[in-house]
Design goal:
protein transport; 16 helices; 447 residues
Length: 447
């Protein structure tokens, strides 16, 4: 944050106050001046923060109009308050405390003890209130899913760690001890709340109940989108996640050597549970072909999500390759389940030399039957699968090209080799031209 230079006390007034302070200290009124200065400056600093639109009063973080009957608030309100708290902390530690320290040094420089006492009285309560508000925010419930708080709690944790050293440098004596302890307790509380919510989120993917909203077109499961969005958010705070999850990992490993970061371990567990979850939901599809489309879409979304974040570096190439193979396996399984039957009608494996030489009319009958069966199978596939969805444009186009490569090649070869056996009745049996086959395939998976 760029340092803002400002005078909390007018420089000319500081000169006059210095003269007054020296006289009062000289005649033995140091305790009174410390008390009065501290009280006055405390209220002035609170007003100063208000002028900067920074509210640190606890009531500003708990708007009754925005809470539910059980005391929870909206995620929007919680996020707004979190940003206000971080802004208040940055302004106070980076600007207000140093300037107040300078003012106390200018006015009470003649007596080091009085200087420290006045500074502590003026700033300790404001600092404590800021930390108390942060502590209160860890306890606030949101009536959205609680784990949405995690990225915000991690941001608060990161900012407090950055500013903690400055706080310790500026404060001294008993005030330093009190505020340092309060800051450490807040860091612990933020870490405990965030790690607890992270563990709870794992249970979301472990819930044995199938997701209620099954996507009818094979699209990505809402849970998959939700989990990958959550992972992407947390990637920006991965260092802090490592810090707060390390004690949990060390406890679970019981002294064993830890070869992966806590963040990487957490994501691996989360994705493994997510994989099981959408495999369970895939069983809800009676159509085997749609089941593989659903599995492929979800696996692809996970792959793309990891590839678009810094997480792919820490997860390693092996894990990435496993996801690629999984997407390919689902795609191959779909092609086999969906198109093998249709293409079998264009195969001449059942035609022998004996049939060609000694069974007059066999090829004509076989050709007509094969093309009719293909027409029926192809029509059913395109009619049904046009409503299915493959949301990733690259995967959708790749799948279409593979289908075209297999179907068009087989169809053209079939017509070129055996079309002559249809005689003058070709238009009666050949329902699709190669161009129509291509157009219909290119309409697949739009949803």
């Amino acid at each position: 944050m760029e340092k803002v230079h400002m005078y909390l006390i007018d420089p000319e007034a500081s000169i006059l106050l210095k003269e007054i302070a020296e006289l009062m200290i000289l005649v033995g009124h140091a305790p009174n001046i410390c008390r009065d200065y501290g009280e006055t400056r405390h209220h002035m600093l609170m007003q100063f923060l208000s002028l900067l639109s920074v509210q640190i009063e606890q009531k500003s973080y708990n708007n009754p109009a925005a809470t539910t009957t059980n005391g929870a608030c909206s995620m929007q309100l919680y996020e707004k308050n979190q940003k206000m708290w971080i802004q208040a902390l940055k302004v106070f530690v980076s600007t207000v405390l140093p300037e107040e320290r300078n003012s106390c040094a200018q006015i009470f420089g003649c007596d080091r003890k009085v200087e420290e006492d006045c500074f502590a009285r003026a700033t300790t309560r404001c600092t404590g209130q800021l930390l108390a508000v942060g502590s209160m925010m860890t306890n606030v419930k949101v009536y959205d899913q609680q784990h949405h708080k995690v990225p915000l709690l991690l941001q608060m944790h990161e900012e407090l760690i950055k500013l903690q050293r400055s706080i310790n440098v500026l404060l001294s004596g008993d005030a330093k001890g009190v505020i340092s302890e309060q800051a450490s307790m807040l860091l612990d509380k933020l870490g405990e709340e965030a790690s607890s919510l992270l563990m709870e989120f794992l249970n979301v993917c472990s819930n044995p109940k199938p997701c209620q909203n099954i996507v009818l077109d094979g699209d990505i499961l809402p849970l998959t989108r939700h989990v990958m969005g959550f992972v992407e958010q947390l990637t920006e705070c991965s260092d802090t996640v490592n810090l707060i999850l390390l004690p949990i990992l060390e406890e679970e490993e019981e002294g064993a050597e830890i070869t992966k970061s806590p963040w990487e371990c957490y994501v691996r567990i989360l994705l493994a549970r997510l994989q099981l979850k959408f495999e369970e939901n895939a069983e809800s599809y009676k159509d085997e072909r749609l089941r593989y489309i659903f599995l492929m879409n979800n696996a692809m979304h996970v792959l793309k999500g990891l590839g678009s974040s810094d997480l792919s570096m820490s997860m390693g190439n092996d894990n990435h390759q496993q996801l690629v193979v999984r997407v390919e396996q689902y795609g191959t399984a779909y092609l086999r389940a969906s198109w093998t039957g249709a293409l079998s009608h264009l195969s001449d494996h059942a035609v022998s030399d004996y049939d060609v030489l000694f069974r007059p009319g066999f090829l004509c009958h076989w050709m007509r039957k094969g093309i009719k069966n293909f027409n029926s199978a192809f029509g059913e596939i395109t009619r049904v699968q046009t409503t299915w969805k493959v949301p990733d444009p690259q995967l959708r186009q790749h799948l279409r090209l593979i289908i075209l490569q297999q179907v068009l090649t087989a169809y053209r070869t079939y017509l070129e080799r055996y079309g002559c056996y249809l005689g003058n009745n070709e238009s009666e049996y050949v329902k699709y031209t190669p161009d129509e086959i291509e157009n219909d395939v290119l309409d697949l998976f739009e949803g």
